């Protein structure tokens, strides 16, 4: 418990961010119920924005980055966890307003922690991470809103990204016909291997500018926001469901109400900051009926020292799938 903590710390202010490796003492851990020795973390789009200051993500400086991590419980004041439990930590303030996963140890509120469900290894769980959790939550919510295999094609954009890769995998294993839309068409073999039945270059999607265009999609999972999301509202089928997950292309949405009032298009929001009961439900499904089949293909595992380069790659759009960081894999 007294050994020093190796950490990747984001310092500065919202206007000028620097990030560097450093050593923290246990007294610098944040308050919380559960101390976790971290083995692996991952690099999400949000992590890359946070560590480079490209987005105003960090709400407390200095802050260890990393919005998800897996490890072993060292001590717990919550009856939900015992020392030795294998757990995943993600969402809420993790890596945003409290120290996150790029550190060999963390202390967090119990509500940010889930046991890794039976059937998933720790590496599976961090490959899924907050990205796959959000993908599964989106599928869960879309099906509650009427999406079902056989109703038509489902579009997934930003397709090579972390959320999108796992979404494609989950939808394909449930029998959906998935159309992957990507800015990296050379990655078509990867996307087909995940289960996409068709891969479309984002530049080849016909411009959709009228309030209602030809209806093409029973559903869509949107990581991009901005114009790509607006185009989806115009091209989704009657009673189709769009899950809005991200804003990699922009945060504005300029459209009309016509898709909603004339086609009954359902635009649903997906947010991964959930209460324990919903987190348990989604993680149980991720280990059972929504279990991705291609995690080995989606994951790339890199040493802790490579983190700054991985962050650069994500910010510059060179990443594919999920990058897992081996923070202290020997623990
Ligand atoms: N709602 C939530 O709770 C929640 C949870 C997790 C993530 N998110 C959000 O979901 C989005 C995706 O996250 P992620 O971790 O999967 O990110 P990621 O791995 O970096 O993937 C994003 C993908 O979007 C595409 N892309 C990137 N920049 C773009 C741009 N400027 N214009 C158009 N396409 C672009 C790229 O795919 P292609 O090259 O294949 O097109 C990229 O691989 C982010 O906005 C993130 O903040 C939200």
Provide mean pLDDT, rounded: 97
Overall 3D shape: globular
Radius of gyration: 20 Å
Count of alpha and pi helical runs: 9
Please name the CATH topology of the largest domain: Quinone Oxidoreductase, Chain A, domain 1
The helix-strand sequence is EEEHEEEEEHEHEHEEHEHEHHEHE
Give the low-pLDDT segments.
Answer: none
Structure characterization notes:
27% of the residues lie in helices and 28% in strands. It has helices at residues 45-52, 122-144, 162-173, 188-194, 226-235, 258-262, 276-286, 295-298, 307-315, and strands spanning 5-13, 16-24, 34-43, 63-64, 68-76, 86-90, 105-108, 113-115, 154-157, 178-182, 198-201, 217-222, 236-244, 266-269, 299-303, 322-326. Strands 3, 5, 6, 7, 8, 15 and 16 form a 7-stranded mixed sheet that branches. A 6-stranded parallel sheet has the order 11-10-9-12-13-14, with helices on both faces. Helix 1 packs across helix 9 (307-315). It is globular. 47% of the residues are buried. Bound molecules: NADP nicotinamide-adenine-dinucleotide phosphate. NADP nicotinamide-adenine-dinucleotide phosphate binds next to helix 1, helix 2 and helix 3.
């Amino acid at each position: 418990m007294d050994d020093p903590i190796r950490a990747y710390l984001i310092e500065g202010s919202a206007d000028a961010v620097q990030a560097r490796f450093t050593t923290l003492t246990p007294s610098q851990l944040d308050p919380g119920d559960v101390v976790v020795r971290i083995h692996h973390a991952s690099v999400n789009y949000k992590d890359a924005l946070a560590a480079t200051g490209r987005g105003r993500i960090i709400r407390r400086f200095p802050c260890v980055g990393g919005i998800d991590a897996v490890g072993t419980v060292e001590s717990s004041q919550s009856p939900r966890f015992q020392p030795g439990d294998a757990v995943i930590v993600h969402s809420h303030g993790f890596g945003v307003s409290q120290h996150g996963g790029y550190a060999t140890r963390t202390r967090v509120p119990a509500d940010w922690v889930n046991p890794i469900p039976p059937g998933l290894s720790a590496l599976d769980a961090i490959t899924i991470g907050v990205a796959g959790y959000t993908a599964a939550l989106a599928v869960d919510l879309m099906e509650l809103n009427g999406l079902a295999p056989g109703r038509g094609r489902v579009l997934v954009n930003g397709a090579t990204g972390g959320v999108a890769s796992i979404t494609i995998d989950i939808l394909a294993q449930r029998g959906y016909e998935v159309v992957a839309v990507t800015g990296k068409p050379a990655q078509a073999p990867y996307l087909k291997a995940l289960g996409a039945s068709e891969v479309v270059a984002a530049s080849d999607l016909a411009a959709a500018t009228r309030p209602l265009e030809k209806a093409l999609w029973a559903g869509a999972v949107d990581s991009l926001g901005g114009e790509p999301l607006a185009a989806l509202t115009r091209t989704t089928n009657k009673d189709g469901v769009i899950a809005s997950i991200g804003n990699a292309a922009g945060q504005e949405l300029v459209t009309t109400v016509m898709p909603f009032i004339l086609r009954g298009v359902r635009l649903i929001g997906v947010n991964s900051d959930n209460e324990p009961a919903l987190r348990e439900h989604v993680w149980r499904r991720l280990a059972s009926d929504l279990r991705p089949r291609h995690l080995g293909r989606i994951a790339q595992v890199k040493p802790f020292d490579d983190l700054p380069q991985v962050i650069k790659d994500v910010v510059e759009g060179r990443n594919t799938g999920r990058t897992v960081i081996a923070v202290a894999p020997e623990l």
